[in-house]
Design brief:
single chain, 228 residues, mainly alpha, Serine Threonine Protein Phosphatase 5, Tetratricopeptide repeat, two-stranded antiparallel ribbon, 50% helix, 3% strand, globular
């Protein structure tokens, strides 16, 4: 039995923080799902952050940096910031996300990746949907955002958005309720599932099509999305 840490939790506990770290490694490397699963199935695997990094780094091609942080694109949080900006800059009289949609379009045109995730595994599309920013969601979908992405807890975009929509209704925010519902209908029309599986997220045809647009340069470690 593992020795407990100061917080009473085993030192090798599979904590949410470590789960999020693994999600980031999924999205910031070109390793396939099968390659990562081989690492995790090793008998000596200890699900600590350092072990995950050490084992995944060992699989990098020789011309890759040994430090996965070198692969973190400078625009890692840019797309999250576009959607999250609404909370800080727009009040009840905002334009429904049209200004943010214009910002998002400019960022994407500047080769920001639309597939990067925040610390809880949310993509820009997931955040925009929960904020009820249909114009932003439309831009992201048009540019190839993946509708089957899940957060670090394995919950899909539609399920999270539905929970936020219900909260908005319960608190009397009918405007936000209607905006989120509009985004949900948009994603359903785009083929989103209420409960996407791991295969939907990483191995489906739509996933391969979406992730094929994002490449990582071994020379610079930068990430970009190819334009349509």
């Amino acid at each position: 039995m593992s020795a407990p840490s100061l917080g009473g939790r085993p030192r090798n506990a599979w904590t949410p923080s470590r789960q999020r770290q693994l999600v980031r490694l999924y999205t910031l490397t070109r390793l396939t799902k099968d390659e990562i699963q081989k690492v995790l199935k090793g008998k000596d695997f200890n699900p600590s952050t350092s072990d995950i990094q050490k084992k995944l780094r060992a699989l990098f091609p020789p011309d890759y940096s040994t430090d996965h942080r070198k692969f973190r694109p400078s625009n890692d949080t840019s797309m999250k910031g576009v959607a999250d900006m609404d909370r800080r800059t727009h009040g009840p009289g905002d334009d429904g996300g049209k200004l943010l949609a214009d910002c998002a379009n400019k960022l994407i045109t500047a080769r920001c990746s639309i597939h990067m995730r925040d610390r809880t595994g949310n993509t820009a599309l997931a955040i925009a949907t929960r904020r009820g920013l249909r114009p932003v969601a439309e831009i992201l979908l048009k540019r190839g955002a993946h509708v089957h992405s899940r957060d670090s807890m394995g919950v899909g975009i539609l399920s999270r958005a539905e929970s936020t929509m219900i909260e908005a209704k319960n608190t009397g925010d009918e405007r936000l309720y209607a905006r989120i519902l509009s985004c949900i209908m948009l994603l359903i029309e785009a083929g989103a599932k209420a409960e996407p599986t791991e295969q939907d997220e990483w191995m489906s045809r739509s996933a391969k099509k979406a992730f094929a647009r994002t490449t990582i340069s071994p020379d610079t470690g930068s990430s970009h999305s190819s334009m349509i």
